[in-house]
C-alpha cells in the first residue's frame, strides 16, 4: 500500500490544528493510504530526511507551519528542481487552511520575479484549503505524474572526493549560499567580487560546487584570486551542472542533506547571497541548527546580503526576513545591505568569537 508522509506535530488536546489533522487522517485512510507520522510525534533531521523520502510515496504538509515544516517543503521542491530520482512521481500537497504557508508562497513568488526560480513552484507544491482537495491532488498526480521541470542531464562523470589542506595563513572558511540559475549580470559580477575578496582577505570559500549563476561566479572569483575553495555536491546534480574548475577540496555526498551537513561542518561563517529555493532551504537549515543548539552551528555567524535589486526596486531578501520573523531572534543572523560591508562584517563577527 502507498505511504504518505504527514508533516507537523500535535502539541496536545488543545492544539487548534488537531481537528483538521483528524479530518485529513480520515480522508487519507479512506483514500487507501498508509500514513507515516499520523500522530505528529516524529522529528526530521538532516541525517534521516532522505530515508523518510525513500520510504514515502507522497507528502502532505499540514496547517500551523513550523520552521522545520518550511524546511521540509522547500527541500522537496529543491529535489524536484534537481531531478532527484528518489522524488520521481511523488506528490507534495500543502494544506494551507490557516494561511500559515502564505509567507513562504510570497517568498517563492518574489524569487520567481527576481529570476532565481524558473519553474512554476505552484505546480509542484500544490496548495489546498480542505482535506478533500488534498486527496484530489494526490489522485491526480498518481494518474498524470509530475510536471517536467525543464532540465536535462549533461554528459559529465562524477568525480571522487579530494582534499587540499587549508593554507597556514587561513582565517577560516566562509560558506556562500547562492543561486546557480540567475542570469542578471549585476549579480554575477557581485559573486566574482565576493569570491575574490574572500581570497584576498585570507578566507577560504565553501560553496555548493556549481558552475553556473552566482555560485559559479563566486567560485571563479576565489580561484582567480588564488584562494582556497571547497565545495560539495551530489551525483544527480553534478549530472545536470558539472563541477567548477580549480576547487581545492571537493566532498562528494549521496544526497542534498548530507551535502549541506559537510558544508556546514567545514565552514566558520555563512553568507546568504542572492539565491533561489536551494538558498532558502540552506538558510532554514542553519537557523534550525542554531535554535536547537547543534554543535554544527555553535558560534558560527550567519549574514544575509539583502542587496537592492535595481530592476524591481526591492531588496532581495525582504520576503525571507519577513518569513523568519515569527521564529527568529535578532541574534540568529545579521543583515548587510552593501557588498563592500560583507568582508568587514565576516571579519568582525569571527574575530568577536575568538575573544576570550
Gyration radius, rounded: 20 Å
Give the H and E element order: EHEHEHEHEHEHEHEHEHEHEEEHEH
Helix content: 25-40%
Q: How many structural domains are formed by the residues?
A: 2
Q: Please count the helical segments.
A: 12
Query: pLDDT average, as an integer?
Result: 92
Assembly status: single chain
Topology (elements, then pairings):
Elements: E1 3-6, H1 18-30, E2 34-36, H2 49-55, E3 58-61, H3 67-81, E4 91-95, H4 102-114, E5 125-128, H5 131-144, E6 173-177, H6 185-200, E7 204-207, H7 213-224, E8 229-233, H8 235-241, E9 249-252, H9 256-265, E10 269-272, H10 277-291, E11 302-305, E12 308-309, E13 314-315, H11 318-324, E14 334-336, H12 342-354
Parallel strand pairs: 1-2, 1-3, 3-4, 4-5, 6-7, 6-10, 7-8, 8-9, 10-11, 11-14
Antiparallel strand pairs: 12-13
Attribute tags:
15% strand, 356 residues, 7-stranded parallel beta sheet, 12 helices, Rossmann fold
Structure description:
The protein has 356 residues and is of the alpha/beta class. It is built from 12 helices and 14 strands. The N and C termini lie far apart (58 Å). The strands form 3 sheets. The chain has a 7-stranded parallel beta sheet, sandwiched between helices. The mean pLDDT is 92. It folds into 2 domains: 142 residues, Rossmann fold (3-Layer(aba) Sandwich); 182 residues, Rossmann fold (3-Layer(aba) Sandwich), CATH 3.40.50.
Brief synopsis:
With 356 residues, this protein is an alpha/beta fold. It has helices at residues 18-30, 49-55, 67-81, 102-114, 131-144, 185-200, 213-224, 235-241, 256-265, 277-291, 318-324, 342-354; strands at 3-6, 34-36, 58-61, 91-95, 125-128, 173-177, 204-207, 229-233, 249-252, 269-272, 302-305, 308-309, 314-315, 334-336.
Amino acid at each position: 500500500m502507498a505511504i504518505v508522509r504527514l508533516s507537523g506535530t500535535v502539541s496536545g488536546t488543545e492544539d487548534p490544528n488537531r481537528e483538521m489533522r483528524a479530518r485529513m487522517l480520515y480522508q487519507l485512510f479512506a483514500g487507501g493510504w498508509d500514513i507515516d507520522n499520523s500522530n505528529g510525534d516524529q522529528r526530521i533531521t538532516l541525517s534521516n530526511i532522505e530515508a523518510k523520502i525513500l520510504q514515502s510515496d507522497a507528502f502532505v504538509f499540514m496547517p500551523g507551519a513550523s520552521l522545520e515544516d518550511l524546511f521540509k517543503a522547500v527541500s522537496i521542491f529543491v529535489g524536484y528542481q534537481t531531478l532527484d530520482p528518489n522524488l520521481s512521481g511523488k506528490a507534495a500537497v500543502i494544506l494551507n487552511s490557516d494561511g500559515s504557508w502564505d509567507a513562504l508562497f510570497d517568498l517563492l513568488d518574489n524569487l520567481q520575479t527576481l529570476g532565481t526560480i524558473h519553474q512554476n513552484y505552484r505546480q509542484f507544491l500544490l496548495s489546498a484549503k480542505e482535506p478533500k482537495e488534498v486527496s484530489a491532488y494526490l489522485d491526480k498526480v498518481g494518474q498524470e505524474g509530475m510536471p517536467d521541470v525543464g532540465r536535462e542531464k549533461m554528459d559529465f562523470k562524477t568525480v571522487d572526493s579530494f582534499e587540499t589542506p587549508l593554507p597556514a595563513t587561513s582565517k577560516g572558511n566562509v560558506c556562500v549560499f547562492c543561486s546557480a540559475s540567475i542570469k542578471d549580470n549585476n549579480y554575477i559580477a557581485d559573486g566574482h567580487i565576493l569570491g575574490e575578496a574572500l581570497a584576498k582577505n585570507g578566507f577560504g570559500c565553501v560553496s555548493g560546487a556549481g558552475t553556473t549563476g552566482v555560485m559559479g561566479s563566486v567560485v571563479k572569483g576565489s580561484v582567480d584570486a588564488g584562494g582556497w575553495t571547497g565545495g560539495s555536491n551530489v551525483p544527480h546534480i553534478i549530472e545536470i551542472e558539472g563541477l567548477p574548475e580549480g576547487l581545492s577540496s571537493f566532498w562528494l555526498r549521496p544526497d542534498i542533506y548530507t551535502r549541506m551537513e559537510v558544508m556546514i561542518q567545514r565552514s566558520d561563517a555563512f553568507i546568504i547571497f542572492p539565491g533561489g529555493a536551494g538558498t532558502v532551504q540552506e538558510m532554514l537549515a542553519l537557523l534550525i541548527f542554531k535554535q536547537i543548539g547543534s554543535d554544527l552551528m555553535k558560534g558560527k555567524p550567519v549574514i544575509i546580503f539583502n542587496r537592492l535589486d535595481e530592476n524591481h526596486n526591492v531588496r532581495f531578501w525582504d520576503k525571507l526576513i519577513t518569513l523568519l520573523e515569527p521564529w527568529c531572534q535578532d541574534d540568529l543572523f545579521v543583515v548587510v545591505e552593501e557588498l563592500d560591508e560583507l568582508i568587514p562584517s565576516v571579519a568582525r563577527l569571527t574575530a568577536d568569537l575568538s575573544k576570550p
